[in-house]
Amino acid sequence: MENHTREIEAVMSWASDIARSSASSMTRVDQVNGSSGQAHNEDKVNVLLVDDRADKLLALQAVLKDLNQNIVTARSGKEALRHLLSTEFAVILLDVSMPGMDGFETASLIRQRPATEHTPIIFVTSMNQSENSITRGYELGAVDYILSPIVPKVLKSKVSVFVELYRRTEQIKLQAEKLRRLEEQALKYQLSQAVDRLEAETKRNRFFTLAVNMLAIADFDGYMLQLNPSWERTLGYSEAELRERSGLDLVCPEDRPAMEAEMQKLRAGTASGYFEGRYRCKDGAIRWLGWTAAPFPAEKLIYIFARDITNEKAAEEEIKGLNVQLNRQVQQLTDTNKELEAFCYSISHDLRAPLRAMRGFSQALIADHTPQLDETGRHYLDRIAHSAKYMDSMLHDLLEYSRLTLCELPVGEIDLEKELGEVMRGLENEIGSKAASVDIQFSATRVVAHPATLRQVFWNLMTNALKFVPADRSPRIKVTSEALAEGVRICVSDNGMGIPEEHRDRVFNLFERLHRDPSYPGTGVGLAMVRRAIERMNGSVGVVSSADQGCQFWVELPSK
Amino acid sequence: MNKPLIIQVEDDPNDVFLFDRAFKKSGIAADLKAFVDGEDLISFLTTQSSSGGAPPSLILLDIKLPRKSGFEVLQWVRAHPVFRRLPVVMLTSSAQPHDVRRAYDTGANGYLVKPMDIDEMTRLLTAVHGFWLVANISATGTDVPHLTPSTGNSPSI
User: Fold this and answer.
1) Which of A349, A350, A364 sits opposite B118 (nearest CB)?
2) Nearest Cβ partner of A349 from B14, B93, B97?
3) Do A54 and A167 have their domain in common?
């Protein structure tokens, strides 16, 4: 009775394993039940011997020892099932006649569990019951049988066949696994490649679509096979309309021969340089496209990159027009300058001669014919002579003034003290005769100017400061200089009669005079020359004054 | 003995008259002869050289002249085998720096601007006479063979 219960337990445990199905892989040999007392060895396969009789098990073990495999023994079907739960076996030698669960029942249970469904079973049966057993054994999926008493040689050879078979199978399994892994790797690689390609293509397509410029792939006849939306935007044709005609048909007739030649080059496989041409849009407007293209003769494809350069072309034309205009103006200016030079030549050579004659003859008249002239007559002749001389001075100053305009004035770094010193030497007599004082205080001395022209400026400012002083005063002149952020400011201050506010802007004009009094002679060119000279040397000039407070002329010149 | 000759090339009759008057006033011991243009002067000098007559002592040359300019006349003189060392002083209205430079570049010996005053004209002519005809030693007509400039180690100017 107790025996029966244990059998049921084993069967129950077996059944639950069947239910769990083969999903969980079989535990390996290393966890083999220690009860068999046999050491596990990786290279060895497991052989299960099942017999209720210990002597028979011993005998089987002895026979199979030579095979040098792991032998596991079980004394009952139940024990056998327990082993099978934890260990994988190459072959099972199963005694048919066992008390309780016999060999057939055991085999039947073994077969029901997927993990052991195909484990080879060799039945061990006695000769007398052989016929019946063999038939049933085969029905239960036995692969072989052995009749007892056992012939060791037969047993050994049969078991070794299964050991070998198991080994081969394991090997094949391993190889299959290896192969599967390799295939999996290859597939994974292909997959990642495909994903990368797809990503790149997606990105490229995004650029293709987003590009402001026109991108296209065309065939050798100029038909666009793939094109981005910029073409539609630029030329006004729909994508379908653009696809159904050769790109050459859109080119304006005047540019077509050049375009054909370019296509010919591309068909020959020559990468095109930059090419420009006019295209007719759907609305009839003409737009300039500039493009480069690369041919792929193997595929008979041309990759095109084009840009709308209509605005650039228009700007270019405009610049060309402006240049022509500029050149014309420069020419006009050159002509004007030449005329001005001729005018100056004429003034210096021709206009002064009659004045000299007027003055000369009126003087000769006074000198040679005094007796025939009365006081009034001599006075008139004096006036003629004086006017002629005055006009000659005006012509002289006008020439000097225009020379400042026409001449090249190469500037360089110069020393203020040195230049003013030279002017002071020239004015020594005048300063002495007028008992004038000149105070020079320079805190900056380097300016960039044309030396002779700067001396002329100093000369004009200093002679003005000496001249325009009331007769009862001695001139007191102060010349200072100070460094500015980007230059030098020079001031010439005097204690003269000053310039009333309302005249301040006019004093720099040509032939502008504030005093007609003969004690202040002049032609009104001096300050005009100062302004022209300073402006031509990239400086500026001005005056600060109030009537009878003297005035302060300032000049700013660059120091670099 | 003939007085030394000063030649004035001047197309403006007013100037000719006023200078002649000033010359007379100055009492200079020389003759002043005026030519109205450069071609007149050239034909006079040409005749003078072929007839073996005495060359003038000084030429006062205006720049603005009809047909040949003063510079062209000066060039002719400087190229002439006999007159090339003749003192030539420009006497002109223009004080323009480019006229002055060009005159010296062409070989003028001096440059004077016509004065506005008749008294100054007299003073100027007296000074010219004192310098060019009295003080100055000129090489006119001395007929020294023209020295070939050395091509050797003369320092560059």
Assistant:
1) A364
2) B93
3) yes
